[in-house]
Write a structure and sequence with these properties.
Tetrahydropterin Synthase, Chain A; alpha+beta; rod-shaped; single chain; 49% helix
């Protein structure tokens, strides 16, 4: 009986208590819970960081679109303020002999009014050109050139050409009209057009100018 008692006592001592069996399981559950909480926290921080980055990027792009520099919205200067490009403008070389083209005389009727009555104009016109090669080339354009000059002369009234100023204006108009045939733009208005050589035809001269 003594041996049975001893054996039972030893078996009771070898069996672990419920408290000692449950303790490791509780510790493992707490550790897993802590790991899950940390993972969730890291995930939340990542989401918040990405959201903040997107908001900052959108704000920066919006600010760039609306913050236009002041100088970029200033209207450009008017077209008339742009410099005028004048082709063929050059000084007259007095050491180079001038080249002239003699035209056949013109006889045209002037515009009439009741006060002035009817009048006609006889004009002997000579053109100054830039070189002899141009003088030869103009021969092929002579019918069109004479037509252009006739249209200008017949558009005038006596009062338009009866003094020196009127005749100078007529010279300028013929010069502009002939050079325009060859696609040459006139010089600026402040340049005296009867004296500033430009284009293939550089001057218009009257050898005779008779109004009757």
């Amino acid at each position: 009986m003594a041996q049975v008692a001893n054996t039972s006592s030893e078996q009771l001592q070898a069996v672990p208590s419920p408290a000692s069996v449950a303790s490791p399981a509780k510790r493992g559950g707490k550790l897993l819970l802590i790991i899950l909480l940390i993972a969730v926290l890291v995930l939340l921080l990542a989401v918040v960081g990405i959201g903040a980055l997107l908001v900052m990027k959108k704000s920066a792009s919006t600010g760039t679109a609306h913050e236009t520099p002041v100088e970029s919205v200033v209207p450009p200067p008017p077209f008339s303020a742009a410099p005028v490009q004048v082709p063929f403008v050059s000084a007259i070389d007095i050491n180079k002999a001038p080249v002239f083209v003699q035209l056949d005389p013109f006889t045209v009727n002037l515009q009439t009014t009741e006060d002035e009555g009817s009048h006609y104009l006889q004009a002997d016109i000579v053109l100054r050109v830039n070189e002899q090669k141009t003088a030869e080339a103009l021969k092929g354009w002579m019918p069109e050139m004479r037509n252009r000059i006739n249209l200008i002369l017949t558009s005038k009234f006596l009062r338009d050409i009866q003094n020196d100023k009127g005749q100078e204006r007529l010279q300028s108009e013929i010069l502009l009209g002939l050079n325009a045939m060859f696609g040459v733009q006139p010089p600026p208005s402040e340049v005296p057009q009867t004296h500033a050589p430009y284009g293939p035809i550089q001057g218009v001269l009257f050898n005779s100018f008779i109004v009757q």
